[in-house]
Amino acid sequence: MDIIQLKNTISQLLQPTKGLLAADESTKTIQKRFDALSIECTEESRLSYRQMLFTTPKIEEYLSGVILYDETIRQKINGVSVPQYLENKGIVPGIKVDQGAVDSPDFPNEKITAGLDGLEKRLLEYKNMGAKFTKWRMVVRIGQGIPTQECIEENAQRLVRYVEIVQGMDLVPIIEPEVVRDGSHDLKKCQEVTIKMLKAVFQRISAASVTLEGLILKTNMVTAGQDNTNQMSLEEVAQATLDTLVESVPKEVPGILFLSGGQSSDMATQNLNAIAKIGGPWELSFSFSRALQNEPLMKWNGKEENVKKAQAVFAERGHKVSLARQGKL
User: Fold this and answer.
1) What is the mean pLDDT of residues 109-119?
2) Which of 74, 77, 107, 299 has a CA 20 to 30 Å removed from the CA of 311?
3) Which among 58, 33, 127 has a CA at the least distance from the CA of 316?
4) Is the peptide bond before 147 cis (omega within 30 degrees of 0)?
């Protein structure tokens, strides 16, 4: 493990005014978004969409890194590989390496993350393509009788094994344990489950042969479920989120990225701003997918003539999120 190399990459990703674009949606996920707008979903249209995002002028002022999907990392923009194109703009290319959440045979109504089989071989290929960091998502849902501690532990074990393998190849692992917003649970329940999840992850990490200084945490903000009519104030979300992290996350972790997790663009941006105003012992940043992409996707709508308008909307949202990351919105 080259800890100097890992720290250099982390320093690039955690630049004080910037954050990450999560452009790692699976083909199935992006098809749902395209279908909602009646956009034909093909390899060519998916590249056209992501090219619109990546070629947006001056977006490197707001983005330090982009998480790519397997299809995208193999594609080219103007004859240049996507990872190299991003690097040329000063943006660090990364790659999602888990293979999705699948139904658990042992824990009914719960998910476990697949992707450890063949991971080292895939990592070597991605590294040769130019990836500097990776991401692995762990999904936790709140419902009747779930999550179970046993399923959380199983997912945490897989997450830690991923970290061991990735750090061993001198790539930065982003760990993404997420309590999803699906459901009508309240903020207190989300906080309780998030604490349980994060403690399970870091207890296993502390017992493993990995270094906390060589990874980044990406996780959910503490909010009420999306079906709960009482969504709480910005200040309440921010305080609950930071209280949760202080209780669960070691100070040695260099940075925490917040995912938007089904929040609207404005809700995620405003909550990030409220969190940043309070602050914590880590660099607090963002790794948004839909909160950055919803507006430009709708403006683009699959049409070449809409590219510049969509890019303007994307840059505007990037600027807002950058300000929010600094608590200056």
Assistant:
1) 96
2) 74
3) 58
4) yes
Burial 76-103 (b: 16+ CB within 10 A, else e): ebeeebbbebbeebebbbbbbbbbebee
Residues with Cβ < 8 Å from 311, sequence gap 6 or more? 52, 53, 55, 56, 57, 296
Residues 215, 167 contacting (CB under 8 angstroms): yes
Q: Are 34 and 240 in contact (CB under 8 A)?
A: no
Delineate the domains of the chain, giving CATH numbers in brackets.
3-325 (3.20.20.70)
Pick the closest to residue 281 from 234, 259, 248 (CA basis). 248
Q: What is the pTM of this model?
A: 0.96
Average pLDDT over residues 76-101: 97
For residues 170 and 5, is the Cβ–Cβ distance under 8 A?
yes
The residues, ordered by sequence, that sit 6+ positions from 302 with a Cβ below 8 Å of its Cβ are 34, 37, 38, 39, 40, 45, 48, 49
Catalytically annotated residues: 176, 218
Q: DSSP of 104-170, one letter per residue? A: -SSSTT-EEE---TTHHHHHHHHHHHT--EEEEEEEE--BTTBS-HHHHHHHHHHHHHHHHHHHHTT
